[in-house]
Amino acid sequence: MKPVLTILLFACVLFCKTAFSQTSFKVIPLGVKGGIDESNLSAYMIATTGSNDYVCLDAGTLHYGIEKAIQAKLLHGTAEEVLKKNIKGYLISHAHLDHLAGMIINSPDDSSKNIYGLDYCLDVLKDKYFSWKSWANFADEGEKPALGKYHYTVLTPGIEMPLQNTDMQVTAFSLSHGNPYQSTAFLVRHNEAYALYLGDTGADSVEHSDKMHQLWQYVAPLLKAKKLKALFIEVSFANEQPDKQLFGHLTPRWLMSSLENLASLSGKEALNNFPVVITHIKPGGNREQVIRTQLKAYNPLHVKLIIPEQGKLLTF
Amino acid sequence: MKPVLTILLFACVLFCKTAFSQTSFKVIPLGVKGGIDESNLSAYMIATTGSNDYVCLDAGTLHYGIEKAIQAKLLHGTAEEVLKKNIKGYLISHAHLDHLAGMIINSPDDSSKNIYGLDYCLDVLKDKYFSWKSWANFADEGEKPALGKYHYTVLTPGIEMPLQNTDMQVTAFSLSHGNPYQSTAFLVRHNEAYALYLGDTGADSVEHSDKMHQLWQYVAPLLKAKKLKALFIEVSFANEQPDKQLFGHLTPRWLMSSLENLASLSGKEALNNFPVVITHIKPGGNREQVIRTQLKAYNPLHVKLIIPEQGKLLTF
């Protein structure tokens, strides 16, 4: 083939690839709720577009969510195969049961992989869950005998680490979740694209903390440069919940207030139509509907609000 | 009314009551599986016929099972109302997560009630679950502050205790579940009728234990006298599972062998057509079907084998 033709063909392939794969990440919510319903607790499989090598951001519900995703043809094979082959690791934001019960319950069927987290979170996994008293110790540290299926990978705040057997990296940041109890934000990177997942957290002013502000300082330049593709953040309670009874959680009002803090660093324009995925809504009475209404009613930065559903694909 | 008529009417009412309420207990399975599926883990609501004051035998899955039972019109109101009003207490056989995750996850929505168990089980609840690190301490002992919604009621093996706010009593017995790890059998009584629920356990000869034999010695006279109405017992694995990999569980063959030990104390006739509810079958591949087939294929005592289903009423 003549060189000119080759170059033209190459340029065409490059154009098509760019035109038809605008997204960087795909996310399969395995569970989205902030409690009560054991079949639908916080867990989000994330991979890069075109890959089937996922990690799981929190792991409240696995099996039931995987079954739903298989029914929706987002995943293929049996639930056990997906668990073993497609989930390459777990990123656990904090050690409350609704964020990791699925991982514990499914561990006998699982394959060898890493559990990523900040030290205080992994310490609770060692001491309280994989302790032989609550569950067999499938990990590689803690109460003996350690069966060694899971390897604890301690993350250091602000230091990026590779997510093994995937094409992604992660940087962790500490969050306040009912001060002094801590939670974690995970900034997942693929090349120049980022997705940010926050575990349960309250607003800085309620928590008497500056941890969310510190996180915003880190990610504001990425948001401004359009490298940050999506933000996953919790809204557990409606605006009517008194601050003293938030237990380290956000309301629609506190979410918007926190995002305004981010906007003060990134510029408001950067948040216009920016995808904000609302996680961890606590079921109970008509709270889910009230929160949806309150979020829509007051969205001064015009972020793109997304309420995820179990087994329904998200792309960014 | 003349005395003779009054007596006749009374006799008639008594006859009708006896004729139309032969059963003593009703059981609503909220979850029946031995792992993996977070929406269907061991939990059995039991009450006396005609009462809506239940206790829950283990509490692996609550909310999702209650929803199923409401759909089946076995329970009425919302799941939260059922949780708060109809479940008067929890009897936890042992502290493995698949037997109590539902209770922990649902605790923020629950009402004040008792958690019954042997001391080693309640100690794990205190130390590992309601510890503030894994979950807020909703109980009345352990890590401070103790929120006090649940009251730990320590049972002593062989000593009967009332099940508060119900018309039932319970006697607990220690079981071996991967010796030296212990589990519990609960013998529930209403007047002269009994139901026996065994938590996870292995056969005595595999466990190098005599705990099941001791339990059979206690209940054999009740079985013989037809006061024992049903037995709930686990079969986790198929016969092909090597004894060394049973991890404190039963197979169809080990179940029948254990029942033959019971028959040696009660007489074989007492087990003929006696209801044996098979709990805790571990999902995976075609194991569930294999276990059903193996149970039917070798049932030398002709017990009435019952495979329970989530949200499907059982009466005894």
Write the layout of secondary structure elements.
The structure is a homodimer of 316-residue chains.
Chain A: H1 3-20, E1 25-31, E2 43-48, E3 54-59, H2 63-71, H3 79-86, E4 87-91, H4 101-106, E5 113-117, H5 119-129, E6 150-154, E7 161-163, E8 168-176, E9 182-190, E10 193-198, H6 204-207, H7 211-224, E11 228-234, H8 252-266, E12 275-279, H9 287-297, E13 304-306, E14 314-315
Name of the CATH architecture of chain A: 4-Layer Sandwich
Order of helices and strands of chain A: HEEEHHEHEHEEEEEHHEHEHEE
Whole-number total of structural domains of chain A: 1
- Low-pLDDT segments, ≥5 res of chain A: 16-21
Largest sheet data of chain A: 7 strands, mixed
> Would you tell me the structural class of the helices and strands of chain A?
alpha/beta
Oligomer: homodimer
Determine and state the CATH class of chain A.
Answer: Alpha Beta
Total number of helical segments of chain A? 9
Kindly report the spatial arrangement of strands forming the biggest sheet of chain A. Answer: 6-5-4-3-2-1-14
* Shape label of chain A: globular
Largest interface, counted with CB-CB under 8 A? A-B, 37 and 38 residues
Distance between the termini of chain A: 38 Å
Please state the average pLDDT score of chain A: 95
Calculate Rg of chain A over CA atoms: 20 Å
